[in-house]
Structures are given as structure tokens and as C-alpha cells.
Design goal:
The protein is built from 5 helices and 17 strands. The chain is α+β, with helices and mostly antiparallel strands. It folds into 2 domains: about 150 residues, Diaminopimelate Epimerase, Chain A, domain 1 (Roll), CATH 3.10.310; about 150 residues, Roll (Diaminopimelate Epimerase, Chain A, domain 1). A hairpin with a 2-residue loop joins strand 5 and strand 6. It binds pyrrole-2-carboxylate. Pyrrole-2-carboxylate (PYC) binds next to helix 3 and helix 5.
Length: about 325
């Protein structure tokens, strides 16, 4: 066995969506903040992401998290989120997966019935409260970054689909929120190719004409997620299909997407603080969420979402790169 690189991982899934938690093999990434480390990683170390999430070690919907020492002195652990699409500033299902792995492998001091872990993410400090019984992480509630609605009833001309009305909201990533009916596509997993094509077309049209940029943190920008509401979605129960660039669905109900949806409902006056909303993924798995606080962020008002979900460890692994491997960064097809 020959290895030019070797990575230790604990694989998990959060309500169906994988998080490959990289616990060893990546040195401390240069940078004073996790946002700077993310920038450095994207510019200089992206082959590590590609190797770990692309085929043949990963797959088109693979997602992961690289553990790091924190930059923020308030935090216990730093996290860099990796996906087939790149490095997200924040990932809700990934945070639930990381917290579960940290507790169940004993990488953090565990207290029962609740273990609190503060995670330093490129989007800011996120707190995870893990419900623990007999050493098992039974559920994780995250206090997400400040979220806000960027636009309501915006319109965009989408080539091949016509004019689309959408809302756009931020919950750690930007999300365009609309439905499939106006695009002439059924909300049905059997039509998944059409749903993905519609999502990518909406994403491209918005990025081309009105690319979102975070109103306080200009390192966060661009749209790579479209949340299509199910016909029966309402302000207490959001069933949806989440299309993610470059062409896959979130299998989980999407923590940052659920946060964005709650910020949008709040902006519409439909979701007060401390009222539960259930979020359901395209495969039927669920998170519950609520808005727990109104805050001022850089002179703007925002809300703090809390999301609860579950994750399960699926395996432990060492991923290697043989020096003669013809695909050192993997591939996508
Ligand atoms: O759970 O926030 C999330 C997420 C983002 C992309 C995939 N999952």
C-alpha cells in the first residue's frame, strides 16, 4: 500500500444526507478567521476537497466537514464545509453530523443529558446542543448564524421557463424560494431531472442578473441553492425539493435552507419568534425549526434560527491517495 496522502474520516448521515467528517490528515489551514481559512483553502488546497468528495471516494451528492482548531476563542472546534459544489460558508446538516461525531467518538467532553459544542464556521459562531443518552447523540439542536430575507416577490426571466417570481433569503447560504407550478414542472421525485434542470436555470438567471451578496459580510455571495416549495407547504410545515449546484438534491431538509425559509416567513409576517416549523426534504426526512431571537447585525435586523435534527455514524475510514492514481482529484461525470 502506498499513500501520498492519508485522511482519517468518520462518515455519517443527517436525515439521509452524508457528512464525511475529516478528523485527521489536514494541517491547520492558514488564516486568522475560518472565513480566511476557507478563502485560503479554495485558492490553494481545493484538490483535498475534490479528492474527498468526488468519485470514486465520494459521489455527486457527497458532502463533508474538515475539523480544524478554532480561530474564534469562544469556540471549541473549527469547521470547514466541503461539497461537490465547493466550500459552503455554513451547512446545517453538516453541523448536526459534526456534533454527533464529536460526541459519539469522545472528541469533546460529553455531559448528559446535554452537551454544548461551539463551532467556528466561515459564516460565524454556531452552537450545537446535543441531546445525549448513554453516550449516544439522540438529536442535535443548532443555533444558527443571523439570517435575513433579502428580497420578496422579485422576478427573473428564466430562459426556457419564462418569468419567475421568487423570494431570496439567507440562512448561512443564499436560497431562492419559489414553487415548481409556475415553471410547469411537477413536484414529484419521478420528475427529478426536470426539477434539477429548473433549479439550475433559476439559479443561473438570478446569478446573472441580480447575484446576491451578504449585506454585512461581502465574502459570502452567489446563489447555489433553489428551494422549490411543495404544493402543500405552508408557514408551519415546509415540504420542499432543494436543488443544489451543480445538480443534486439535498437529501436532508437542509439546515441553512430551513433557516432561510423561516427568515422569509418572518419577513412576510407569517412566522413569529418561538413558533415551530417542520421542514421536510424531498425524501421525506424532517428537521424542526424555530426562530429564537431578533438581533441587530451590522445595523440590520435579522433573526436567529434554531434547527433540530438527527445524525447517525455510518463508518470510519482512512482515505488514501496512491501516488500512481490517475485521478488524484477524483472526477465527476
Ligand atoms: O443542511 O445547510 C444544510 C445544507 C446545505 C447544503 C446541503 N445541506
Amino acid at each position: 500500500m502506498r499513500a501520498a496522502r492519508m485522511f482519517q474520516a468518520v462518515d455519517s448521515h443527517t436525515e439521509g444526507m452524508p457528512t464525511r467528517v475529516i478528523t485527521g490528515g489536514v494541517a491547520t489551514i492558514p488564516g486568522q478567521t475560518m472565513a480566511q481559512r476557507r478563502d485560503h483553502f479554495i485558492a490553494n488546497l481545493d484538490e483535498v476537497r475534490q479528492l474527498l468528495v468526488n468519485e470514486p471516494r465520494g459521489h455527486p451528492a457527497m458532502s463533508g466537514a474538515i475539523l480544524q482548531p478554532p480561530c474564534d476563542p469562544r469556540a471549541d472546534v473549527g469547521v470547514l464545509f466541503i461539497e461537490v459544489s465547493g466550500c459552503l460558508p455554513m451547512c446545517g446538516h453538516g453541523t448536526i453530523g459534526v456534533a454527533t461525531v464529536l460526541v459519539e467518538t469522545g472528541m469533546v467532553p460529553v455531559t448528559e443529558p446535554v452537551t454544548t459544542i461551539r463551532l467556528d464556521t466561515p459564516a460565524g459562531l454556531v452552537t450545537a446542543e446535543v441531546a445525549v443518552r448513554d453516550g449516544a447523540a439522540e438529536s442535535v439542536t443548532i443555533r444558527n448564524v443571523a439570517s435575513y430575507c433579502d428580497r420578496l416577490d422579485a422576478t427573473v426571466d428564466v430562459p426556457g421557463f419564462g418569468r419567475v417570481v421568487y423570494d431570496l433569503s439567507y440562512g448561512g447560504n443564499f436560497y431562492a424560494i419559489t414553487d415548481l407550478e409556475t415553471l410547469g414542472v411537477p413536484f414529484d421525485r419521478r420528475a427529478k431531472g426536470d426539477v434539477i434542470a429548473a433549479g439550475l436555470a433559476v439559479m443561473a438567471a438570478i446569478n446573472e442578473t441580480a447575484r446576491p451578496v451578504h449585506r454585512v459580510y461581502d465574502h459570502i455571495g452567489g446563489l447555489s441553492h433553489v428551494l422549490f416549495l411543495a404544493p402543500d407547504a405552508d408557514e408551519r410545515s415546509t415540504r420542499h425539493a432543494m436543488v443544489i449546484h451543480p445538480g443534486w438534491f439535498d437529501r436532508s431538509p437542509c439546515g441553512t435552507g430551513t433557516s432561510a425559509r423561516m427568515a422569509q416567513l418572518h419577513a412576510r409576517g407569517l412566522l413569529p419568534l418561538n413558533v415551530e416549523m417542520v421542514s421536510e426534504s424531498f425524501i421525506g426526512s424532517r428537521f424542526s425549526g424555530r426562530l429564537v431571537e431578533s438581533v441587530d447585525e451590522g445595523g440590520f435586523s435579522a433573526v436567529i434560527p434554531s434547527i433540530t435534527g438527527r445524525a447517525w455514524i455510518t463508518g470510519t475510514a482512512q482515505y488514501l491517495l496512491d501516488p500512481s492514481d490517475p485521478f488524484p482529484t477524483g472526477f465527476t461525470v
